Structure prediction request, 227 residues.
Amino acid sequence: DIQMTQSPSTLSASVGDRITITCRASQSLNTWLAWYQQKPGKAPDLLIYKTSTLETGVPSRFSGSGSGTQFTLTISNLQPDDFATYYCQQYNSYPLTFGGGTKVEIK
Amino acid sequence: DVQLVESGGGLAKPGGSLRLSCAASGFLFTSYGMNWVRQAPGRGLEWVSGITRNSKNIHYADSVRGRFTISRDNAKDSLYLQMDSLRAEDTAVYYCARDWGFGEIYMDVWGKGTTVTVSS
Prediction:
């Protein structure tokens, strides 16, 4: 199984900041990686797929990059609505696996 | 509107069974793969099982293989998860989610979830 390691697990930031979340895979994913945002008590929302493709309706302050085993999610100009938990997910092979999550908190 | 609505959650005893359902609407159900993803209280997301559009390919997480069975009824636009031999560690919110298939197994539409509690 492919293990997904996200860091940091918690991130404190302020409105307007630029933040980066890292996701590392235990083996190469090519570019088969997605990012989700989840708010408390809600289902996850897809942000990015195939490493860097923004889902329709997702603001352009979100961006993704990487390849192989190292991937990043960047949020520039952090907005109040962005304080949430973020998960990466690999779909290179079954079983599908998620990272442990990164909670973005208000500093 | 594109929508997935889960049902069937509740309280079950260890060793018991539950059957979850997911009703799809607003899109052509037969064009998409479907998945179950769960989230234990205070924990992260865990993919449970997936099924292709024609049910030809089915996959399970190791933690549920042999105990859970995924199925779909394309005539009824519905997805199911039969959960047998339930354990306390199966306690979670269970989400159904669609994927694009053809290798693009990321989940772009999710239901609101149904809660399963396994306790004596």
Observations:
- The first strand of chain B starts at residue 3 and ends at 7.
- The mean pLDDT of chain B is 97.
- The CA atoms of residues 97 and 109 of chain B lie 6 Å apart.
